[in-house]
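sry for the spam today, last one i promise. C-alpha cells for design, 84 residues
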C-alpha cells in the first residue's frame, strides 16, 4: 500500500469509532473472526487495545493484521486501524 493510500485511510479513520476491543485475553480466535467480519463489511476497522492486553501495542497491531490478512494502517495510542 502506498503512502497516499495510507494517508487517506488515516484521515478516514479519524471519523470512526472503535468497533472492536482487545482485552486481557489478547487476540483470541473470536477477536480474529469478528475483525475479519468487520473488515469484509466496511473495509476499515478501528480496534481499541485495552491496557490489560499484555503485549506491546505495535506488536498487537501487527498480530491483528497477520491473523486477519489485513494491512495495519496505524497504531496511535491504544488504537489500531486496519484495512482490508
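last one done:
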Amino acid at each position: 500500500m502506498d503512502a497516499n493510500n495510507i494517508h487517506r485511510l488515516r484521515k478516514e479513520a479519524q471519523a470512526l469509532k472503535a468497533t472492536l476491543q482487545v482485552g486481557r485475553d489478547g487476540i483470541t480466535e473470536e477477536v480474529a473472526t469478528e475483525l475479519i467480519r468487520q473488515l469484509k463489511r466496511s473495509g476499515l476497522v478501528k480496534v481499541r487495545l485495552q491496557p490489560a492486553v499484555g503485549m506491546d501495542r505495535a506488536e498487537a497491531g501487527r498480530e491483528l493484521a497477520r491473523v486477519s490478512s489485513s494491512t495495519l494502517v496505524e497504531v496511535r495510542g491504544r488504537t489500531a486501524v486496519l484495512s482490508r
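Strands lie at 20-22, 44-49, 71-76, 79-83. ok im logging off now
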